[in-house]
UniProtKB/TrEMBL annotation:
Functional note: Probably involved in the osmoprotection via the biosynthesis of trehalose. Catalyzes the transfer of glucose from UDP-alpha-D-glucose (UDP-Glc) to D-glucose 6-phosphate (Glc-6-P) to form trehalose-6-phosphate. Acts with retention of the anomeric configuration of the UDP-sugar donor.
Reaction catalysis annotation: D-glucose 6-phosphate + UDP-alpha-D-glucose = alpha,alpha-trehalose 6-phosphate + UDP + H(+)
Species: Neoaquamicrobium sediminum
The protein, known as: Trehalose-6-phosphate synthase
Oligomer and partners: Homotetramer.
Pathway named in the protein's UniProt entry: Glycan biosynthesis; trehalose biosynthesis
Length: 465
């Protein structure tokens, strides 16, 4: 079995993965099984570019991480990755903030990181690159003479060609993706968008739905819907910490139902529209007074990007106006937590909730949708309200599917979820649970790695020839 090399923006601590999300655990398991390397940014910024990475051996896995300069952090991480690619790939052209130095830094950091990891690679390694931070990584490594099989998985959506074309570097990005041997997307819609781009812009040749020819090389593309470790999350949800038990018992005594949302505070997650829908629900259904509370957990992320402080201000305003209008001395309808909550507490809170709101304006997959379903009690499950624009909606069709821009209909869907009879809740939940059990982390890992193992790799000529 070939060694595995993972390159991702950040590296999880292999000794503490039980505290991280399922993705880190799954990747760590795959690395331990095969042995290999995990490389990423260490989260530090320095005045000058370090010449070497930090290397730590944990069992049969080498953890390699490196710092970047303050300038690269601003232009590459805050700039090109999170102020150009993230909004562009989430269909938010209004938020794209393109500057030429951002793109230079994007190429420079990828080239630097490729140079730092290359000495640790072996000829037969499988190299698996993750996400939009590292699109040019295969190209940078190939320029250094690396001939290994290389795969890329995009965790976020791939936009339609017309949107992508708004970026001055669209052709560069697509050609950089074609330097891999296997290209993985979250959904069928993403793979279709990618193939449409190739056809519309005359890049390469689409041989069939899963195969592309480009400069004499063969590239396999497919969807690999990411999943969670369902059993581990279910167990976590069953073992509620005391404070969650006490909170649930109190709510039960008062006959109150809980609606929950859990998202990084990101404009792609549709939080203002969700808050407005909740406000409309209370306005249109006065009988719900003191009968329902909405708990939104939204820890901060990427605070150096301006668009993120704007959304924070907006949510604080909405929370204030909804609570000011509807609260009573013994009822706060909306609780908004702008801090991270421990994973065990989240799992138990999902189980203690009657409705899960997952209403992004655009999302690659959305793991919260799967976690909410996994956490439910099979005998008395809660209802998932899911945006049609989350990748998860492609398969999780038994959720109440909503248009997150349409706050009136969203309010009615929340009402329907709160009132749904037990039989219907059980039937929907069973179908959803079957989906997430079928598409779990292990399947995602196994299918991607299997395709990478059998991909062109060594037989593909180098991209520059
Ligand atoms: C990207 C794509 C794709 C959230 N708040 C807390 C917390 N979380 C955890 C959730 C979940 C994870 O973070 C978020 O995952 P999502 O999938 O929902 O979203 P992104 O972070 O945007 O992830 C996405 C994913 O990559 C995987 O490919 O699905 O589409 O955008 O696990 O539970 N965890 C803890 N405290 C919090 O306050 N402990």
């Amino acid at each position: 079995m070939s060694r595995l090399v993972i390159l991702s923006n950040r590296v999880a601590d292999l000794r503490k993965t039980s505290q991280s999300g399922g993705l880190a655990v799954g990747l760590a398991d795959a690395l331990r099984q095969r042995g290999g390397v995990w490389f990423g940014w260490d989260g530090e910024t320095l005045q000058t570019q370090p010449r070497e990475a930090t290397v730590e051996q944990v069992g049969n896995v080498r953890m390699i991480s490196a710092a970047m300069t303050v300038e690269d952090y601003m232009n590459y991480y805050v700039g090109y990755a999170n102020s150009v690619l993230w909004p562009l790939f989430h269909y938010r052209l209004d938020l794209v903030d393109f500057h030429a130095p951002y793109f230079d830094a994007y190429q420079r950091v990828n080239a630097n990181f490729a140079g730092l990891v290359a000495p640790y690679l072996q000829d037969d390694d499988l190299i698996w690159v993750h996400d939009y931070h590292f699109i040019p990584m295969a190209n940078c490594l190939r320029r250094l003479g690396c001939r290994q099989r290389m795969g890329f998985f995009l965790h976020i959506p791939f936009p339609p060609p017309d949107l992508l074309a708004a970026s001055p570097n669209h052709r560069y990005l697509v050609e950089a993706l074609l330097d891999y041997d296997v290209l993985g997307f979250q959904t069928t819609a993403d793979t279709i968008n990618f193939r449409h781009y190739l056809e519309e812009w005359g890049v390469g040749e689409v041989l069939d739905e899963r195969t592309i020819r480009y400069k004499g090389r063969t590239i396999a593309i497919d969807r690999y819907p990411i999943g969670i470790d369902v059993e581990t999350f279910r167990d976590m949800a069953r073992n509620a910490p005391d404070d969650v038990r006490i909170d649930s018992a109190r709510r039960e005594k008062l006959g109150r139902k809980q609606i929950i949302g859990v998202d990084r505070l990101d404009y792609s997650k549709g939080l203002p529209d969700r808050f407005q829908a909740f406000g409309k629900l209370l306005a249109q259904h006065p009988e719900l007074e003191k009968q329902v509370t909405f708990l939104q957990v939204a820890p901060p992320t990427r605070e150096d990007v301006n668009a993120y402080s704007d959304i924070r201000d907006e949510l604080e305003g909405l929370t204030g106006s909804i609570n000011g209008r509807f609260s009573d001395f013994n009822w706060t309808p909306l609780r908004y937590i702008h801090r991270p909550v421990p994973r065990e507490t989240l799992a138990a809170l999902f189980r203690a909730s009657h409705v899960g709101l997952v209403t992004p304006l655009r999302d690659g997959m959305n793991l919260v949708a799967k976690e909410f379903v996994a956490a439910q009690d099979d005998e008395d499950p809660g209802v998932l309200v899911l945006s049609q624009f989350a990748g998860a909606a492609e398969d999780m069709t038994e959720a109440l599917i909503v248009n997150p821009y349409d706050t009136d209909t969203m309010a009615e869907a929340i009402h329907q979820a709160l009132m749904m009879p037990l039989d219907e809740r059980k039937a929907r939940h069973k179908a959803l649970l079957d989906h997430i059990l079928h598409q779990d982390t292990q399947r995602w890992l196994a299918t991607f790695l299997n395709d990478l193992e059998t991909a062109g790799g060594h037989t593909n000529p180098p991209p520059d020839s």
